[in-house]
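From the pipeline queue, job 12 of 40. The input is one protein chain; the requested action is below.

Action: predict structure.
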Amino acid sequence: MRLSTKGRYAVMAVADLAWNSNGSPVALADIAQRQEISLSYLEQLFGKLRKGGLVRSVRGPGGGYLLARDPAAMRIADIILAVDEPIQTTRCSPGSPSGCHNNSVRCLTHDLWEELGNQIYLYLSAITVADVVERRVLGTSGLGGDFAQRLAAQ
């Protein structure tokens, strides 16, 4: 699967914005510091997020960024797609009739990987920024370490 830092950082920054705004604009420098992301990289990402209608900027003293939509209506997949990050699991172009082999034939496992990409997209479309901020995203990945010990102690 190809999900670069661009998509991950955009989601991290939007979640940080949702968590810290309380109705007031949040400076990108503050997000950059909290999330340990380069400020210039965040500026590029927020330009794309603004064009995608996910955030809006506020100029002047005390300015910064606000979410342009309710966090409960903002899907994680929307954020990733807004920063031009395709969710791709195959070597060939998504939706292309030709495959990844030199003779343009699809590999034997093409449909497997393409369906995996579809499932990832469906999953990320089902999760909102509010879900992330309110920590409602918990799967089996949360069963390791301290969480498993706390669960066992109950």
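Job complete. The two ends are 37 Å apart (CA to CA).
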